[in-house]
Design brief:
Length: 67
């Protein structure tokens, strides 16, 4: 089951909620004030930029002081 980030519109509380597929957003209650005005936060999916094939082939020697 996916865990979503929610933010309460009433008190601004942020919380994680385990949401089953049969559960809708309107049923999510804020654990702090019990209001149902929680909005799901859009968390960006972790996409690796540029891919992993960007390994330079010209770095044969041991990198000294390369940070
Ligand atoms: Zn709240």
């Amino acid at each position: 089951m996916p865990v979503y980030d929610y933010r309460c519109e009433s008190c601004g509380n942020r919380f994680d909620e385990l949401v089953s597929f049969s559960k809708s957003d309107s049923e999510i209650k804020c654990p702090k004030c019990n209001d149902k005005k929680s909005k799901r936060m859009l968390s960006a999916p972790s996409i690796s930029t540029n891919g992993s094939s960007a390994t330079p082939s010209n770095s044969c020697g041991a990198p000294s002081g390369f940070s």
